[in-house]
Specification:
The chain is an all-alpha fold. The protein has one domain: Orthogonal Bundle (Cytochrome Bc1 Complex, Chain D, domain 2). The radius of gyration is 16 Å and the shape is globular. It starts with a helix and ends with a helix. Bound molecules: heme C.
């Protein structure tokens, strides 16, 4: 049963990645990113936070959910980003992140089906990725994705995601 769910999850992720890569070739890259961000905002309001079913076992000092004012601030910045999608050129992610993670966590780590990763430290990300991989933090989707991924990839993804907030700030700066 576990395996079936993991296989379905990975299949879905693969499909989403292929779909997103397809979009990129079809239309101008920035247009597609802007569109994805826009649809992401819609998805967010539709899902309304009911997606995360399991509780994280690894905690950091960071607050679990941003304060309302922070969320508003983020929305404002995302809106600005949409208007000036050209600035997203400054926010290029690695092929690995794009292929394996962006479909659920968003092109800039803003969170879609999966939680927001932007603003998390490298340490937080790496600790959780390792916990998903070794099963100490249970999530079939993340386990299915990471169980075969070498630790060096986890490390480089964590390093990359740790820079998302700074990159985002730079891209949205007036
Ligand atoms: C098919 C969707 C999907 C894909 C693809 C995916 N994730 Fe996730 N991810 C999730 C979900 C859902 C959760 C929430 C799991 C939970 O809370 O137990 C999550 C949780 C996480 C967390 C923990 C976040 C937190 O604040 O606790 C990290 C870190 C993470 N993912 C990183 C990644 C990375 C890196 C990749 C690419 C290798 C990736 N994810 C790909 C769906 C996905």
């Amino acid at each position: 049963m576990k395996h079936i769910i993991a296989v379905i999850a990975v299949g879905l992720a693969a499909w989403a990645s292929v779909y997103m890569l397809g979009l990129d070739t079809e239309v101008h890259k920035m247009d597609s990113i802007a569109r994805i961000i826009k649809s992401t905002a819609m998805e967010d309001s539709k899902l309304g936070g009911q997606t995360v079913k399991t509780k994280p076992v690894v905690h950091t000092q960071a607050k679990a959910s941003p304060a309302k004012s922070q969320t508003k601030e983020m929305d404002k910045k995302l809106a600005a980003l949409r208007e000036r999608a050209g600035n997203l050129a400054a926010f290029s992610v690695s092929p690995l992140y794009k292929k394996s993670c962006a479909s659920c966590h968003g092109n800039v780590g803003e969170g879609i089906i999966g939680p927001k990763l932007m603003g998390r430290t490298k340490d937080y990300i790496l600790t959780n990725l390792k916990a998903f991989k070794d099963g100490s933090r249970k999530n079939y989707v993340m386990y299915g994705l990471l169980s075969k991924m070498p630790d060096s990839d986890l490390e480089s993804l964590a390093t990359e995601i740790g820079t998302f907030q700074a990159k985002f700030d730079a891209a949205t700066k007036k």
